[in-house]
Design brief:
With about 325 residues, this protein is an alpha/beta fold. The protein contains 12 helices and 8 strands. The chain has one domain (about 10-315): TIM Barrel. It has helices spanning about 10, 55-65, 85-95, 115-125, 135-145, 150-160, 190-205, 220-230, 235-245, 270-275, 290-295, 310-315; strands spanning about 25-30, 70-75, 100-105, 125-130, 170-175, 215, 260, 265-270. Helix 2 links the parallel strand 1 and strand 2. It is globular, with a radius of gyration of 19 Å. The structure holds iron/sulfur cluster (2 copies).
């Protein structure tokens, strides 16, 4: 395939990508995970040791308690359930009336020491957003490791038994992301149609129920980027995403109203920028930490979102975010 020169993302926008009032705090608790998926943008694995410290956890709890404007605390990783701070942060957020999202790989429920997690999540009414990149076993195991599909099905059945997917207070959403493109690129299928297919297949074959399906585009970050580079497909993939740029997605981008925090307490506009080490900045160009948010007594210190070429992944077609397609 011919190499494509990608237009800088900023040049594609009709005006600066400004930040709106912060309502979502997404906390990446660290890089340890019981899996090591081929597409992981965090490059997480069981060998990674990075995780939140008690000090940063305390600062985050102060932020959660101090700012009523935060509506959602979104816990991710790695496998957030196995990382320091998971339960104290979830409980602090619930105690202040916030929605708590746990981004779960489901298989963690079968690791020693984490068998109580489904009951814990149900007891605290945590919303579970679980990866299930396909409803076919082969595709899931290829991407995530042998046996992951079967474990995921057992985990979903367990969550259903606890009321997830049917009780309106126990929300269970699934996440679809396509295989990392080999050479023939395509965007995720239409979300509502795929959701119908997932629901029909999982109900018929496994008796599984869930609330919503989110389709997420693979952004060329982390292991996805490494895979693309290995196949010399990184630039062509960016070109493909740029060709599918949809200006209608821009006002809905998740980076506009969220802060993404890393395990060291640094602040970013989103988890992708976090992985690419592109920190959020104040209007005067200073980096931000959770300590600084507390010192200034404000979450709204950022004027403009930091962008890069991989942002085309969020704006291609119907758009993509941690909450699925944007339009
Ligand atoms: S994609 Fe999720 S489950 Fe897979 S290695 Fe990364 S953090 Fe773990
Ligand atoms: S990667 Fe997506 S969410 Fe992150 S800054 Fe770019 S457009 Fe926003």
């Amino acid at each position: 395939m011919i190499q494509t020169a990608v237009t800088p993302f900023k040049n594609k926008l009709s005006s600066a990508l400004t930040k709106q009032q912060i309502t979502v705090l997404q906390i990446n608790l660290g890089k340890r995970c019981n899996l090591a998926c081929t597409h992981c943008h965090v490059e997480a694995s069981p060998k990674r040791t990075e995780e939140l410290s008690p000090e940063i956890c305390e600062q985050l709890i102060k932020i959660i308690r101090r700012f009523p404007q935060i509506q959602t605390v979104d816990l991710t990783g790695g496998a957030p359930e196995m990382l320091y701070g998971f339960k104290p942060l979830a409980e602090a957020a619930k105690a202040t009336g916030k929605e708590v999202i746990v981004r779960s790989n489901l298989t963690i429920y079968f690791e020693p020491g984490f068998e109580d997690i489904p009951e814990y999540c149900a007891q605290h009414q945590l919303r579970i957003v679980a990866s299930l990149p396909c409803y076919m076993a082969d595709n899931v195991d290829k991407m995530r490791g042998k046996g992951v599909f079967d474990s995921s099905i057992l985990a979903l059945q367990k969550l259903n038994q606890l009321g997830y997917g049917t009780n309106p207070n126990l929300i269970l959403d699934l996440v679809y992301n396509p295989q990392v493109p080999a050479d023939k690129f395509s965007l995720a299928p239409e979300q509502s149609k795929l959701e119908r297919d997932y629901k029909a297949y999982l109900a018929e074959h496994f008796g599984i129920y869930f609330d919503r399906l989110f389709t997420i585009t693979n952004l060329p970050v982390g292991r996805t980027k490494l895979q693309l580079e290995r196949k010399q497909q990184h630039e062509p993939y960016l070109g493909f995403l740029e060709d599918n740029f949809n200006p209608g997605t821009v006002e809905h981008l998740m980076c506009r109203n969220e802060l993404s925090i890393d395990y060291l307490g640094n602040v970013y506009d989103c988890d992708f920028n976090q992985m690419e080490n592109l920190p959020a900045k104040t209007a005067s160009g200073e980096k931000i930490t959770v300590a600084k948010l507390l010192e200034f007594g404000s979450l709204d210190l950022i004027q403009e979102v930091q962008t890069a070429a991989y942002c085309y992944g969020c704006t291609a077609g119907c758009g993509s975010s941690c909450g699925g397609s944007l339009i």
